[in-house]
Each structure stands twice: as C-alpha cells, then as structure tokens.
Design brief:
The complex is a heterodimer of chains A (367) and B (593). Helices cover 78% and strands 0% of the residues of chain A. In chain A, α14 packs antiparallel against α15. The longest helix of chain A is centred in the first third of the chain and has 38 residues. The termini of chain A are far apart. Chain B is mainly alpha-helical and 593 residues long. Chain B contains 25 helices and seven strands. In chain B, β3, α21 and β4 form a beta-alpha-beta unit. The longest helix of chain B has 35 residues. Classes of the chains: A mainly alpha (367), B mainly alpha (593). Chains A and B meet through α1, α2 and α4 of A and α2 and α12 of B.
Chain lengths: 367, 593
C-alpha cells in the first residue's frame, strides 16, 4: 500500500504541472479573445465581437464580465432574446449589478416592454457599479428620464428628473442644463428655468443656454426674465424664431396694463391701446369670416362685435384713467375678443398673440 | 498489414502471460505502518475501503490529465477558436484518424470502443482484470481522437481508465479474486465521477449498468472512490457544474405536456441512432482487416466535411450545449445540429475510433430538446417559457432513451447543471423516452455492442426487468390443521392420522414454529405418556418461518434440511397462510420458465 504512494506522488506532480500550464494558457486565451471582442465591438462589428467573446467564454464559462460583453455584443447585433438569456442568467447571480440591469432595461425597452424596463432602470440606478459609480448612476437616471418622456409617462418622469436635479451640485453646469432640457420636455418650464439659471451661474459664457433659459422663462410666463435672457443671446446666434420670441416678449411687457410699477395713466394708455387692437382684430375677423364661417359662428362673431361697439362708448381713455374696474372689464372683453377671433379667424399674431399671453399671465387673478 | 486480432483474446493472452495468480490476503488483515512501538492492522474489508479512496485519487488525477491533454491536442490541432479554419476542419480529423487507427491496430487493440462494455467484461469475464496497457492506449488514442474533432466524448474512456487503474492497484496489492472483481466497478465509478464532475450519477451508472445490484460491500467502496475522485477533479479543474443553466420555473402546467412530447421524440430518435449503429458497426468490422487502418480517417474526413458547415458537430461539443441552454440558436438550427451530431457520432463510433458516447448523447439531447422547445414555443407561446429548459431536459431524455439508464439520466441532469427545479419535467420526459426505447428496441445499446463483440455479458436491464418469484407463487394451502404446542401426544397422533402429509407443523403461543413427522410422534408415543404435551417434546425445536412476499431465491438458502416450512402472515406469525416445500419451489420455477 505504501508503495502505491510513490506513483501517486508522481502523478500528483504531473497533474499539478499540467493543470498549471493549461490554466495559464486558458487565462491567456480568455484575455486574448476578450480583447479582440472589445476591439471588434468598439469598431462596430458586433457579429465578430460576439464570436470572439464566445471563444473567450469557452475557456472560462463562468466569467461574468465576458458573459456581459457577449450579451452586449448580441444586443448590439440585434439578437435580443439570446442576449436576454445571458443577462437573465447573470442577473440571477448578481441581481444588484448596475450594468446587467441597465442592459436588461435596454433589451426590455427594445422588445417593447416598458413595464419591465423601468424596474431594471431603477435597479441599475441603485445597483453596484465598478469605477465611477456616481457618474454611472446619474447617466442611467438621465437615460431613464429620457425613456419615460419618450413613453409619455410624464408624472414618473417628473419624479425622476426632480431626483436627478436634487443630486446635482451647483457647479455641474452641463448636468443642470440637461436637467433643464428634461424639465422642458416634461412640460415643467418653471423648473427648467431654475436649472438653466443654475447652469448659467456656473458657466455664464454658454450663449445657447441663455436662449434656452429665455424660452423656459417665456413658457413659464416670466417675461421679464425671458427678455433678459433672450437679450443676452448674441445677435449672430439669435435665430429667426428666437428673434420673434423676443419681440413677442417685449410686446407682452409693453402692452400689459397690469404690470407692476405702472402709474394709472400708463395703465389706462395700455388698456386703451389693447382695446383698439382688439377692435381691429374683431373687425377684420367679421369682414373676412362671412364666407368661411357657419351661420352660428358668424352669429357669434356678430354678437361679440355688437357688444364691443356698445362697450366702446364706455371705454374711453379718460374713464380708464380714473376707473380701475373699467380697465379690468375692458381687458376681459379684449381677452374674449382675442379668444373668439383666434378660434374662428386663425391664430393670433403680433400684438393679438401678446394679448392672449397677457391673459394667460394673469389667469386666475382678478386683474 | 497484420491480421486483425481480437481485443478480448488479447486480454485473455495477457492474463495468462503477465499476471500472477491473485493471492488471498491473509486474514485478519495486512500489517502496515509497522513499528516496534505501534502497529496497525486492517481487515481486507477496511483495506478495500482505503484502497477505494486511493483509486479515487489516482483516477481523479488521471482524468484531469486526460481532459487537459484533450484540450492541448485540440488547441494544437484545431486552434483556439470554437469554429476552426476550414483547412484544419477538413484535414485534422482525417489525418489524426490515420494515426489513431495505426496506434490501435499496432499497440492498443483493447482501446477500441467506448469502454463501458470492456469494464463489464473485466468484471464478468476476466476476474476484474483490465490491462494497464489499455489505460495508456485509451489515454493516448482518445486524446488524439477527441482533440482532433471526432464526435466522441471523454467520459466512457475515463470510466475504463479508472477501472484499469483500480485493477492494476488491486493486482499490485495481490487482492483476492472477489475483491479484484469488485475493484473494476470501483475504479469505473471514480473515472466517471471525475469526467462528469458528477459523483452521484457515476455511482448510479455503475450500479445500473455495470454491477446491477445495490450490494452494500461494493457500494461503500464505489461511493468513496467516486467522491475522492470528484474532489480531486474539482480541486484541479474547479467545482462549477458542467453546464450553467438559466433559471427555470414551470410557466404553465400544460408545459409538462410539451415535455411529454419531447420524451416521445427523444425515445424515437434514440432508437433511430441505436439502429444506425447496430446496422453499420458489424458491417464495417467485417470489412477486410486493412480497412481498419483507414476507417477512423474516413470517418474523420466525413466529419470534417460536415464540420465545414456545422463545426458544432465536431468534438465532444460541451460549449455548444452551453449555448443551446442559453437560447443561442433558433429551433431550426438546433434541429440541424442534433441530426448532424447523430450522423457524426455514429460515423466516429462505428469506425472503431476510441471515445465515449456520453458527451455526444448529451449534445444530441440538448439540441433536439431545444428544437422541440422552440417549435412548441413557436406554436404555443403561452405554454412554454423558453428553449433553455427544453435543451436541459432533452439531455437527460436522450441519455435515458439511448443509453437506457433511467435513474442515472435524471440525476445526471441535476448534477451536471446544479439545478434541481427542473427535475419534474426531466422525470416525465426521461421515463417516456426510456419506455419507448425499451418497447421498440429489444436490446439495449451496451448489450447490443457486447453481442456484436461476441461477449455474453449480463444485461443489467434484463436483470432489472426479470420477474421475481416470491413465496406466494410457490406456497400451497396446508392439507391438515397444524398442531398446537399445548396438544397432548394422544391428540397429536389423532390429528396427524387425518393428515395426508408425513410432516405436521406445530405452533407455539410465542409465534415459534416446529415440525414433527408422524413417525417421530409414534416413536414418542411408545416411550412416553400419551398425556405428555408437545411443547415438552419439542422444547428446543425451531424451524424458519417464511412470509408470502419473500423472494424464492432467498428461501432456497433456508429450506435445506426442512421438508416443510410454514408461510405466515407478517401481521402475526401465528397466522398460517400456507406451507412450502422444495418440490413446491422447483415446480414454481418450472412453471415460470
């Protein structure tokens, strides 16, 4: 029996040598094919990359990183169900991996299953990441916001954008600007404006951001800010629509009789001017609409015209100076005229549009 | 060219010329680690268990070397990519086939084939003798064949190498013939456990296919060898299961029906493959002897041609099984791969190229399973979750149908994947495949191969299926009432007179039984008072009692010296169910045949 230990020892030595040599070669092959796969993936050849990763994996089947890259190559190659199979397997072993969850979110998204994708995105945000975990998580949250907005899931998106915004430090200008863009897409121009303003505080040289801040301010009804930001956009960068927007803002600011800081005379002057503009618009509408409108619509325009003509006798500049109630009544009639004419006679432009914006600005107020 | 010699004859010659006669180990045991102060002695039984562990260590390391060598050969000949270059695919299996054939014909004739039947032959024909030369031959030729892309696996050769190592060690230690016979299956289990990284399946396979019984004496050694071998293998090559499987849950109860369909298809295809081998193998072996030198090369060339389009059909194919398990192929491709592998494996095997059938069987099963799963998913997406589980179940299904080892097939799937949740579909599908294969293919694969090799090896399947005769099949109603221990001699004589039998059974209140002949009663009556109770006369007499469910084979051991035995109920040994005698037993056997 003891003698058998000698060949056992020799066999052990042989096995150890063979195993070590082979494992070293195996490791070399894993790395070699893995590098090749990464290169192919980087050069946009996912089909070849997939083969490379598969070769690599054949030497170390349980290498999670190679499996992940293989799944990503399959995903890039459009082989979604195959990629998903690998990722689900990886997820089973590492449910907290940010990268795996993000890939699964991409697959679910591409497979048209947003309900599945959202939890994966959230798991990726709260998952573990190698390297710059904070940056990766933020990147995923940006992506999730875009995803939710693209699916028109605005309330969910709002929550995520707010969380994203809360994570940002004041110095991260670009990220604040991006958050502002997201808020704009989420129909929250006020919050968007706040983000643009933080971004501009950190980096006031970004000409385009003034433009964006101006638009956000305009959408949120902050016309003073809108004028201030749009005015800062250098003329060569101010596009046609932006230039029109600035004009519109200026009209709103110059025609609004309820703007703070005006004296009674100025308020009266503006109301009188707005009333004249409204009458003009109504007259043009009633003249041009005869052939285009139905009998009921024509009758509605005619009724409004009658009311306006009758009010014209009361709405005089002198009376407007002394009677704030009359100013309010006059403006209400003006809003009615602008809304009706916009409805029946085409979209308002120029001062008529400014008057509608003034109405929106003061909506809910008595003034 | 030399005349082809018979490997069995070669073994016989080898026994007569190279082996010393096994010497009985002196009881109570051999002395080892002897010293002036202390000495330890081991009985042969304990020595056998220690030896089983050593066999496990040897076999484990040998299999590790074997598997690594196969990989080195593959890297050297085919390169490191899964899909080698076309030139290599075409040339390597063919040219290596020539080398393998030359080595087999010139040096290692006994290394042909898979190795399972050779191990069985060692147990049942050659008193546990497996030449060590066969181990060397198997190692070299199988490494070359499998590494060059022949569609064969390393498991069955590992089994034979394990048996060969065990046999060599047993001979070196001059163990008794009985123990030598037991050593071959012990080594076989060790070899298989290391090759599959599945000790339970290895133990079950050896019991199901090689020794056929759950003998306590063999089981302990087999388990120890398998475990120690698997531990060695895991410490060198890692402890991960052979296949990684995606998580599985039963999507819908109707999914089990889909697995039943897989069982039917697996059963049918396993019969088809068996018949291909049964048809081609003897015909190729009957060709002129010189063709034996080119058959593996020809098979290699054909496999290379298939491999140009379908490289997955070459080699053992484990990486591709992994891919099938992970939905890497469409069902159409899976079906093509399954059929291509049936073709290439049949070619490799019938050409006499050494190598095993286990790995290709798993490959074919995985591909066919995946194809069936994909097809069912295509038509009934609501009842089947994904292709992966079908591939997994398919492995076991084809294994059960083709190799006809139903219990091993279930455990093999569980062990090689480390996944227990799949066991329900595996059991359903495997059972169906096994039953179909058994019904439409009378002879199991290994029995078929043994017959083709002119070996009369016991068929484990037939043994399992053989009807067992029990006491109830042979017993008869007692023709007279039995006597009570409290009966007087006069009463006993009176009752015995009415009995047509010469022997009368006597029941004691404690449940003990005795028997007495009429002649003995008469003799006692002439010497003693008629009022003497039987319990005084039969105070020490006792006969064995039997139960209706006992095997007749076992009863034969007890009946000698007892012309008539009582058959009593297990619910109470005082309740006589019948009586049985040797003529009754012989009559039952006669009737059964």
């Amino acid at each position: 029996m003891l003698l058998s230990l000698i060949p056992l020892g020799l066999l052990f030595a042989l096995t150890v040598t063979l195993a070590r040599t082979y494992h070293a070669r195996e490791e070399g092959l894993v790395q070699e094919w893995f590098q090749k796969g990464n290169e192919d993936l980087a050069t946009g050849q996912p089909g070849r990359a997939f083969e490379d990763f598969r070769n690599s994996l054949s030497y170390e089947p349980n290498n999670d990183l190679v499996q992940l890259r293989l799944a990503e190559a399959l995903l890039a190659d459009g082989r979604l169900s195959e990629s998903r199979a690998y990722l689900v397997n990886l997820w089973d072993r590492s449910p907290g991996s940010g990268e795996v969850n993000l890939d699964l979110a991409h697959i679910s998204s591409r497979m048209g299953d947003p309900e599945q994708a959202i939890p994966y995105y959230r798991a990726a945000i709260y998952g573990s990441w190698a390297g710059d975990a904070v940056g990766q998580r933020r990147k995923v949250r940006f992506e999730l916001c875009e995803f939710l907005l693209s699916r028109n899931l605005l309330s969910d998106a709002g929550v995520e954008i707010a969380a994203l915004s809360a994570e940002l430090s004041p110095g991260e200008a670009i990220q604040h600007e991006q958050a502002g863009q997201l808020f704009l897409k989420d129909a929250q121009p006020g919050k968007a404006l706040e983000e643009f303003e933080v971004a501009l505080q950190a980096n006031p040289r970004q000409n385009q951001w003034f433009e964006e801040a101006g638009k956000a301010a305009f959408d949120s009804g902050s016309y003073l800010k809108a004028e201030a930001y749009l005015a800062k956009v250098s003329p060569e960068n101010l596009s046609g629509p932006d230039s029109e927007l600035l004009d519109r803002v200026r009209e709103v600011l110059s025609d609004d009789p309820f703007r703070q800081g005006l004296n009674e005379d100025e308020r009266a002057q503006r109301t009188w001017h707005d009333f004249q503009a409204g009458l003009d618009r109504l007259q043009k509408c009633s003249q041009s609409s005869a052939s285009l409108l139905s009998a009921d619509q024509t009758a509605a325009v005619q009724d409004l015209n009658r009311d306006a003509q009758s009010a014209k006798k009361q709405i005089q500049l002198r009376a407007l100076r002394t009677n704030p109630e009359l100013r309010i009544s006059a403006m209400k009639l003006i809003y009615q005229i602008e809304n009706t004419t916009s409805h029946y006679c085409g979209e308002a432009t120029s001062i008529d549009q400014a008057l509608i914006l003034i109405q929106q600005r003061h909506a809910g107020n008595d003034q | 060219m030399t005349e082809r010699s018979d490997p069995i004859e070669e073994m016989k010659t080898s026994i007569s010329t190279t082996e010393s006669t096994p010497v009985e180990l002196k009881s109570p045991g051999s002395r080892w680690l002897g010293g002036r102060q202390r000495s330890f002695t081991l009985s042969e039984g304990n020595l056998f268990l220690v030896l089983a562990v050593i066999i496990g260590l040897f076999s484990g390391m040998a299999v590790v070397c074997f598997r690594i060598t196969i990989e080195w050969v593959r890297l050297g000949l085919l390169g490191s990519a899964l899909a080698p270059s076309p030139l290599r695919v075409l040339l390597v299996p063919a040219t290596t086939g020539l080398v393998v054939a030359f080595l087999i014909q010139k040096f290692f004739l006994a290394a042909r084939g898979s190795g399972v039947n050779q191990t069985k032959a060692a147990v049942y024909v050659f008193d546990g003798y497996v030449p060590f030369r066969t181990v060397i031959g198997k190692f070299i030729t199988c490494s070359l064949a499998i590494g060059s892309g022949q569609s064969l696996g390393p498991e069955d050769p590992s089994l034979q190498m394990g048996a060969g190592i065990a046999s060599a060690l047993g001979r070196r230690l001059k163990l008794s013939r009985d123990k030598l016979r037991l050593l071959a299956p012990v080594g076989a289990a060790a070899g298989l456990a290391a090759a599959f990284n599945a000790p339970i399946s290895a133990v079950l396979f050896v019991i199901e296919e090689v020794i056929g019984t759950w003998s306590a004496g063999a089981l302990g050694a087999i388990v120890l060898a398998a475990v120690s071998s698997a531990v060695v293998m895991r410490s060198f090559l890692g402890g991960e299961p052979m296949f990684r499987v995606p998580p599985y849950t039963l999507a819908h109860p109707a999914e089990l029906l889909a697995y039943a369909v897989l069982g039917v298809v697996g059963g049918v295809l396993s019969i088809a493959m068996m018949r291909i081998i049964a048809y081609l193998r003897p015909r190729l072996r009957d060709l002129p002897p010189w063709t034996q030198y080119v058959q593996p090369a020809a098979a290699g060339l054909l496999i290379g041609i298939v491999g140009l389009r379908i490289p997955q059909a070459m080699g053992a194919g484990y990486p591709y099984i992994d891919q099938a398990l992970h939905n890497q192929y469409t069902w159409e491709i899976l079906a093509v791969l399954g059929f291509a592998k049936i073709l290439t494996t049949s070619l490799s095997f019938v050409s006499g190229t050494p190598g095993g059938m286990f790995a290709p069987t798993l490959f074919i099963g995985a591909m066919i399973g995946g194809a069936i799963g994909g097809l069912e998913h295509h038509f009934f997406p609501q009842i089947s979750a994904s292709v992966g589980p079908f591939a997994l179940v398919g492995m076991g299904t084809f294994f059960a149908g083709f190799l006809r080892v139903p219990i091993t097939s279930v455990f093999m799937v569980v062990e090689t994947t480390g996944n227990y949740s799949i066991v329900l579909p595996v059991m359903i599908s495997n059972t169906i495949a096994y039953l179909i294969s058994r019904k439409y293919q009378d002879v199991a694969l290994f029995d078929l191969l043994a017959k083709q090799d002119d070996l009369e090896l016991p068929s484990m399947e037939e043994q399992r299926e053989q009807a067992v005769l029990r006491v109830e099949d042979a017993m008869r109603k007692p023709e007279s009432v039995s006597l009570q221990a409290g009966d007087t001699l006069a009463r006993a004589l009176e009752l015995a007179e009415t009995s047509p039998e010469e022997i009368v059974l006597v029941r004691f209140p404690t449940g003990r039984w005795a028997s007495v002949t009429k002649k003995e009663l008469n003799a006692q009556a002439s010497n003693r008072s008629k009022e003497t109770q039987l319990r005084e006369l039969l105070s020490t007499a006792r006969i064995p009692i039997l139960h209706p469910d006992q095997r007749l084979d076992d009863v034969l051991r007890h009946i000698q010296g007892h012309p008539l035995l009582p058959v009593v109920s297990r619910a109470g040994s005082r309740k006589l169910e019948g009586v049985i005698s040797l003529p009754d037993i012989l009559s039952a056997y006669k009737k059964a045949t």
